[in-house]
Specification:
The structure holds three protein chains of three kinds. Chain A has twelve helices and no strands. Chain A starts with a helix and ends with a helix. Chain C is an all-alpha fold. Chain C is globular, with a radius of gyration of 24 Å. The chains are: A mainly alpha, B alpha+beta, C mainly alpha.
Chain lengths: ~280, ~600, ~325
């Protein structure tokens, strides 16, 4: 039965152009990330040319401020940006699920305490906390993931909580509860399967946000300058005057477009997932 | 190549240093000079940065002496002066016709008051140099005598050419100078308005004792983002900027026909700071190896694209008259390895990195400001070079305040330090006063107030003490040279480079800028009339060409920016036409079934 | 109902109190102290007595509890104190920045809401058509672009290259423009940052409106109206749109709370003198009072907006009110 359900999802996704496009974009980026060493003409950390070279036969997108090949940087950057997006989203969704399920299922004081916590997190000014953490442990790949996920679990938690509330009133859950099924079984058998699809769509959305947040943090100089993400490449481009010279065409446009494309890949996928989950939206007029 | 440019700069500077009197008509109505930070109130107590903050203060106030473009003190408020043989008594006669901005006369009383006031209300930059003054005697309105308790070789530089004179009739009522907002002085310009975070405006002081200033109204817009600042200059929204142009943009600005670029040596020193208190950096051999491992020329070429001078191992800038010419930057990775081998730093466990003399692992951290991409890149290359000779280290970029709190806790070297290595930089005052070498390396925190690496060596301390009690100029120079040789050998720091100052401005608007060595074009001399060097800014050979084009474009002064957008319009239309032409041609060719494109 | 609001109110008071404490602790937990910003560049040449005097003047050598006490007291008296770095009353600083921030982010919010609602309705109404697909793709594309990237490209093209708009700031204040001239000047400065802001923020309203409209269109009463042969325009705007606006209104209220915080990234790109930039700088310079004040404003307005949304929700939606 489970298998059929998933198969139905897949059918809906694949019959939906946006969803298909989104998934294929994600697959392409995944392939680029995996095959980066094969695709990239150079080691992105090696200084292979003169600094600030224009695009030419050797360096299709020119070189950066210390003579590293920009194309190779971008290809390898796919790994970092994708990983930051996925990991940060994963952590925040796991946290969100935990809080959402506990809060929704148990209700009462636990619920109101957790929801106040959510309110609190939603009003915490993001930036200073980022600086604070970066200052404490130094801005690194993991800290950025940590900060993004610590501050973005709250709204998925809310969404998941309301889903749990709906599920709780469903006949089979109430039935299971009335015959004294253990909480563990109810949670894993009945609640979790109902939550996973929503969590999945939230995950995809969170991933696209994380990638954008990472880029913005890097732009403000709060990222890790030694992690070669697309955001960091843009930071150096910006800091070393690419916006003031012709270099913006090959140093600023490509990373920005890559970020946009990857985020769109996630957004399209997430959007069609949501369509699947809300049958009413699917109904033909 | 770089050397050639600098030396030609110096020669030309010498040739043109003959002075001529420029007639003082306010030739320019308004001049907009972009600055990068709000400087608070522009009086001597509240300004923020040494450059350009204090230079803006100096447009409003006057000093007894003033540093000329080569940083030699020349009389300013002072008309005539006499110094006794024992260098203890200074007699001054000031100009008679000097007035405060409110019309009251500036007299010797104000000078005496200023000295007393700064002693009462300390502001370290101005108060500390006053400590040697034993007595101040006012003879009459313009005559004044200062007697020192002991000779002070820097007395002309500081306080005389640094201390802004305050109006007694105003400041005698001020009890809390740090919160004072007035900026009434005697300088060539008067403060009109300050909108916090946005701009300052000043207007010419037409009664100025050195003649009416050449600019009617000076506006200093505050633009914090450098990209926005450069954009604004290129778009003609501002006429000059205080910020030095980043190396990668120099060519772009030089090729811009409406801008002129003024270049010269900068005195800000970027160096590799070593914590000499922490093993293994306590070992001189280890530090020497670090010095030998770093290719300073490569840093200058790769990161600064040649717009910098390679760091002199003795700290002092090569264009300074105190520089020890016998010292040359070293780079020899093999030698570095050899030094480490001989000192017992060997890779005993075969991981590719050296262990210390007792076989323990070495794993160092190099700190760097995260807000400065040039320094981050520097740290990256230096760290790589050290790894290559087997000194394991990783770079950590953190925000400036955090790095400061680790390398220089509470800005007090007696409070210790918590770092291994770091890319650090000292501002230009360190080069202006070469005897600050003592403060950099003296082991006593009270003397070595900026010895952030905690370097200790009795021999150097002795040299420092000796310098303190030496007044003969050649002897002092020799001592400072000796200290440089000592530092070069011991390597408590590794000077990396001195970034060149590159200023750009719109010569159509105003071309009277004076490039002050180590500082740039934003200084008092750029904004006063009267005596001026005939050729204010001389950079390199391309300059003559630029001037030729300047003359050609002189006719369309005010519409320059509008014409620019016109050019873009024309360009855009031309592009459309060309594209259209090719499309049409392609279509035509298709129609004719011609498939061979030959372009 | 009253009880519900009372308990909500209490909850928000607790949130505010926690945020106040966090605002106090965060800056002090950061490594490094504001000494260099208080003392200026001469700090290296100061004696420790001088440094001590500066710390004492600003109450920074007191115990953390004493500082906390003063902080809370000052909040209740509305005294934000002096900025360490700019050495001016913080109230003045905020008063200078707030109008610009409100102009930029407030106007941005209104414009993007209007555009989002309009196109969201169209898109939902034409569900499944090419128009819907195109609108959807376009709006999702907009939200996928990094804001600073859009901003900088706009500056490069329209300000630096074409010279149509100024490259920085909120107005050419030193020009002393009056009346209409000043208005035009401000509008010219506003165009690019506002465009950027709208471009990157319009999508969320669009998506919410479209989603909610689709939900409403599936409701029985719409079906019924259709069956009865009510005019399409009437159904679309009178029945569907009005009901679908509810979630948009809630989100609008909540976003209103964030407008006071400004838009740090966009303000940075355009050197726009807003609160977001002020906050960012205050953090970098460990300007404790300024950090506290800017955070306080943001927290308060967000919490108040939340509370208002709670208050308004039953008024707007008859279903919740019962």
């Amino acid at each position: 039965m489970e298998k059929q359900k998933w198969k139905r999802y897949w059918n809906v996704i694949s019959s939906n152009n946006l969803g298909l496009l989104g998934i294929s974009l994600l697959v392409i980026f995944l392939l680029i990330a995996l095959l980066a060493p094969l695709l990239a003409p150079f080691d992105p950390t090696a200084r292979v040319g003169a600094p600030f070279s224009k695009p030419n036969g050797d360096f299709l997108l020119g070189t950066n401020d210390i003579g590293q090949d920009i194309l190779s940087e971008l290809l390898y950057g796919t790994r970092v940006s994708l990983l930051i997006g996925i990991l940060a989203a994963l952590i925040s969704i796991i946290l969100g699920c935990l809080v959402g399920i506990v809060s929704g299922y148990y209700g009462g004081k636990v619920d109101s305490f957790l929801m106040r916590l959510v309110d609190l997190v939603l009003v915490i000014p993001f930036l200073p906390l980022m600086i604070l953490l970066a200052a404490f442990i130094g801005p690194s790949f993991w800290n950025i993931i940590l900060v993004i996920s610590l501050l973005s679990w709250a709204s998925p938690a809310r969404v998941i909580r309301s889903q749990v509330l709906t599920l709780k009133t469903k006949g089979y859950v109430e039935a299971a509860r009335s015959i004294g099924t253990s909480i563990k079984v109810i949670l894993f058998r009945h609640i979790l399967p109902g939550v996973i699809p929503i969590a999945l769509s939230q995950f995809v959305m969170a991933a696209s946000h994380s990638i954008l947040i990472e880029a913005s943090l890097s732009f403000l100089g709060l990222g890790d300058p030694f992690t070669k993400s697309w955001g960091t490449i843009l930071y150096y481009a910006q800091a070393r005057g690419a916006f003031l010279t012709d270099a913006w065409i090959w140093w600023v446009l490509p990373p920005g477009l890559l970020i946009t494309t990857l985020v769109i890949g996630f957004a399209f996928t997430g959007y069609s997932l949501e369509e699947i989950l809300n049958p009413r939206l699917r109904k033909e007029r | 190549m770089k050397k050639v440019i600098i030396s030609s700069w110096l020669i030309l500077a010498l040739i043109f240093s003959s002075f001529t009197v420029v007639s003082a008509e306010p030739s320019v109505q308004t001049l907009k000079v972009g600055i990068s930070k709000d400087e608070n109130g522009l009086n001597p107590y509240t300004y923020v940065t040494g450059y350009p903050g204090l230079d803006l203060v100096n447009l409003l106030y006057d000093n007894l002496f003033h540093l000329d473009k080569d940083n030699k003190p020349e009389p300013w408020l002072v008309k005539e002066y006499q110094i006794s043989y024992d260098v203890l008594t200074y007699e001054f006669k000031t100009h008679e016709n000097v007035k405060w901005h409110d019309g009251k006369p500036l007299t010797s009383e104000d000078v005496k008051f200023t000295i007393d006031y700064f002693n009462q209300h300390p502001k370290s930059r101005f108060t500390n140099p006053l400590k040697t003054i034993a007595s101040t005697t006012v003879k009459d309105e313009t005559n004044l005598t200062l007697v020192l308790s002991k000779a002070d070789p820097n007395f002309m530089l500081q306080p005389l050419a640094d201390l802004p004179i305050l109006p007694k009739h105003i400041w005698s009522n001020v009890t809390n100078p740090d919160d004072e907002t007035n900026a009434l002085g005697s300088g060539p310009y008067m403060m009109v308005e300050h909108k916090s975070g946005q701009y300052y405006t000043m207007k010419a002081n037409s009664d100025y004792f050195k003649g009416e200033p050449p600019i009617g109204e000076l506006i200093f817009p505050i633009i914090e983002d450098t990209t926005a600042m450069f954009n604004a200059l290129q778009a003609g929204e501002i006429d000059a900027i205080s910020t030095s142009i980043s190396p990668e943009l120099v060519n772009q600005f030089e090729s811009n026909p409406s801008l002129k670029v003024a270049r010269g040596p900068g005195y800000s020193t970027t160096l590799f700071q070593i914590n000499a208190e922490k093993y293994p950096m306590t070992e001189a051999s280890f530090r020497q190896a670090i010095d030998h491992a770093i290719d300073k020329q490569n840093l200058v070429d790769t990161i600064l694209l040649g717009f910098a001078e390679v760091g002199s191992p003795g700290f002092i800038h090569p264009s300074s008259s105190y520089h020890n010419n016998e010292l040359n930057p070293v780079f020899d990775p093999e030698k570095a390895k050899q030094i480490l081998d001989e000192a017992g730093f060997l890779d005993t466990n075969g991981d590719g990195f050296r262990e210390d003399q007792e076989g323990k692992k070495i794993d160092l951290t190099t700190l760097v400001y995260s807000n400065n991409p040039i320094r981050i890149r520097t740290a990256e290359l230096v760290s790589e070079a050290l790894n290559q000779v087997g000194i394991k280290n990783t770079v950590k970029a953190m925000d400036a305040t955090t790095v400061d709190s680790l390398m220089w806790p509470d800005f007090d070297v007696s409070k210790g330090r918590d770092f291994d290595l770091g890319v650090w930089s000292w501002s230009n005052t360190m080069q202006l006063f070469p005897d600050r070498m003592v403060e950099l390396f003296h082991s006593d925190p009270a003397v070595g107030s900026v010895n952030i690496g905690g370097y200790k060596n009795a021999e150097f301390d002795q040299l420092g003490e000796k310098l303190k009690n030496t007044y003969d100029e050649t002897e002092r120079t020799n001592l400072i040279k000796e200290m440089q040789a000592f530092v070069a050998g011991e390597a408590p720091i590794v000077p990396l480079y001195y970034q060149e100052i590159v200023n750009a401005y719109n010569p159509e608007k105003y071309d009277g800028f004076v490039f002050q060595v180590g500082k740039g074009i934003i200084n008092k001399l750029s904004f006063v009339g009267g005596e001026k060097p005939e050729e204010p800014v001389v950079n390199d050979e391309t300059d003559e060409e630029e001037k030729a084009t300047d003359k050609d474009t002189k006719t369309n002064t005010d519409t320059a920016s509008k014409n620019n957008s016109g050019i873009y319009w024309i360009g855009g239309i031309a592009l459309l036409v060309i594209v259209g032409y090719f499309l049409l041609r392609r279509k035509k060719e298709k129609d004719n079934n011609q498939d061979d494109f030959d372009f | 109902m009253g009880k519900f609001l009372a308990s909500k109110f209490l909850q928000y008071v607790i949130v505010i109190f926690l945020m106040l404490t966090l605002n106090f602790l965060l800056p002090r937990l950061m490594p490094g102290n504001p000494l260099i910003f208080l003392a200026g560049e001469d700090v290296g040449f100061m004696s420790s007595a001088e440094k001590e005097a500066i710390l004492e003047k600003h109450g920074l050598n007191q115990s953390i509890w004493q500082q906390y006490g003063t902080y809370i007291k000052h909040i209740f008296t509305g005294d934000f104190g002096y900025s360490y770095q700019q050495k001016r009353p913080i109230t003045d600083l905020l008063m200078e920045r707030l109008p610009w921030t409100l102009l930029l982010t407030g106007l941005g919010l209104v414009i993007s809401t209007v555009i989002g609602v309009l196109f969201g309705t169209i898109s939902a109404w034409r569900r499944g058509t090419k128009t819907d697909a195109n609108l959807l793709t376009m709006f999702m594309f907009l939200s996928a672009m990094p804001s600073f990237w859009v901003g900088m490209i706009l500056v490069s093209i329209f300000a630096a290259q074409l010279g149509w708009f100024p490259v920085f700031g909120a107005e050419a204040a030193w020009s002393n423009f009056k009346g209409v001239d000043r208005f035009i000047d401000i509008v010219e400065h506003l165009v690019l940052p506002l465009t950027t802001l709208v471009l990157i923020s319009v999508t969320s309203t669009f998506m919410i409106m479209r989603y909610s409209m689709l939900n409403v269109l599936g409701e029985d009463y719409i079906m019924m109206a259709k069956a009865k042969g009510v005019k399409e325009k009437v159904i679309k705007y009178k029945h569907a749109m009005r009901n679908a606006l509810l979630p948009v209104a809630t989100v609008f209220m909540l976003s209103l709370g964030f407008t006071l915080g400004g838009a740090t990234v966009i303000e940075t790109v355009f050197a726009y003198p807003g609160v977001g930039r002020l906050m960012f700088e205050s953090v970098l310079s460990r300007d404790y009072p300024l950090i506290q004040a800017t955070f306080l404003i943001i927290t308060f307005s967000v919490v108040i907006a939340n509370f208002l949304a709670d208050l308004l929700y039953p008024l707007l939606d008859p279903k919740v009110g019962k």
